[in-house]
């Protein structure tokens, strides 16, 4: 059974849909009447600017749905999140484990709202330990039709980068992200947080080279929105259009995926570079290459 506030344009075969909002008071009764065992919560609107209606749907809607699951006696809930919640910090280790504190400081509303959701989930887990809540912290999801910060970045006509910095990015192909959700719902009963990322990492400059996107190196002091010189040199609008905060283009925020493989029992089919090259960019897959890249074979065993 699928529940959404809008009827999907292309319904899945064999899946019945009910048009309803997760904030509806009838959700608990509906879940109870269906005898729902597992709920997969995917409703989330990525928006850079704060909007009350979006916050109400993202954060308050999630809290209401989780409460309805408790009232209905649901056994397991899958909630999506992002590795962006760790924040990009100069003091971050090379690989961020799930227990690492969430320290994101972002001008983008969707990052702050994910932090609010994770805080609510943690409180609910302590209050109702019998409810299995699997939080999947996804790396940058890439794929045709995906509305994400990373997809926006690689489709920006000219991508600004911070002079002297070449940050590492993690990816997960859309198909592998869906497979991880299905695995969590049907196979793994994991009560906790799991980083979901493909093996391997890619430096930003290599990503832009593969995608054929030009870049404008910017002195990192100019990335501070309080510096008026940014406007004088015409970089203000360019930097404002980037869907990542400057720190994410400067400091490490690579998540450790060992728990995903060893405890959650899931392994993505594609590594980071394969995920990028199968992305439908301008209607065509990115070209393949025989060149070596920074993949799992070139990284320590304890990380992606």
* Cα-to-Cα separation, first versus last residue: 35 Å
CATH domain class: Alpha Beta
* β-strand number: 14
Please tally the helical runs, counting DSSP H or I stretches of 4 or more residues.
10
Shape: globular
Give the CATH superfamily.
NAD(P)-binding Rossmann-like Domain
Corresponding CATH architecture: 3-Layer(aba) Sandwich
Class inferred from helices and paired strands: alpha/beta
Percentage beta strand: 15-25%
Order of helices and strands: EEHEHEHEEHEEEHEEHEHHHHEE
Percent range of helical residues? 25-40%
Average pLDDT works out at 81
Give a short account of the largest sheet: 4 strands, parallel
Computed over alpha carbons, the radius of gyration is: 20 Å
Any idea how many domains? 1
Order of strands across the main sheet: 3-4-5-10
At the fold tier of CATH, the topology name is: Rossmann fold
Low-confidence stretches: 225-234, 288-304
């Amino acid at each position: 059974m699928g529940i959404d506030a809008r009827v999907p344009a292309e319904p899945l075969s064999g899946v019945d849909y009910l048009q309803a909002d997760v904030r509806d008071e009838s959700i608990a009764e509906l879940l109870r009447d269906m005898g729902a065992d597992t709920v997969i919560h995917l409703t989330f609107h990525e928006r850079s600017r704060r909007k009350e209606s979006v916050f109400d749907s993202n954060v308050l809607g999630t809290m209401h749905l989780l409460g309805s699951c408790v009232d209905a006696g649901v056994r397991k809930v899958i909630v999506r999140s992002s590795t962006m919640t760790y924040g990009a910090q100069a003091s971050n280790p090379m690989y961020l484990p799930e227990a690492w504190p969430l320290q994101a400081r972002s001008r983008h509303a969707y990052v702050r709202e994910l932090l609010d959701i994770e805080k609510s989930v943690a409180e609910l887990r302590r209050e109702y330990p019998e409810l299995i809540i699997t939080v999947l912290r996804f790396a940058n999801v890439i794929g045709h039709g995906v509305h994400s910060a990373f997809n926006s970045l690689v489709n920006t006509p000219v991508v600004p980068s911070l002079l002297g910095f070449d940050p590492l990015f993690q990816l997960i192909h859309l198909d592998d992200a869906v497979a991880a959700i299905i695995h969590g719902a049907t196979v793994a009963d994991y009560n906790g947080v799991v980083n979901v990322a493909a093996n391997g990492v890619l430096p930003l400059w290599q990503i832009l080279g593969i995608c054929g996107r030009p870049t404008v190196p910017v002195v990192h002091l100019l990335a501070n929105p309080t510096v008026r010189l940014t406007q004088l040199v015409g970089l203000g609008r360019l930097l404002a259009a980037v869907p990542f905060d400057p720190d994410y283009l400067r400091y490490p925020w690579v998540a450790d995926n060992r728990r995903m493989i060893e405890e959650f029992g899931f392994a993505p089919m594609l590594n980071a570079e394969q995920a990028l090259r199968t992305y439908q960019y301008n209607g065509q897959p990115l070209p393949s290459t025989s060149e070596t890249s920074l993949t799992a074979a070139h990284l320590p065993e304890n990380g992606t």
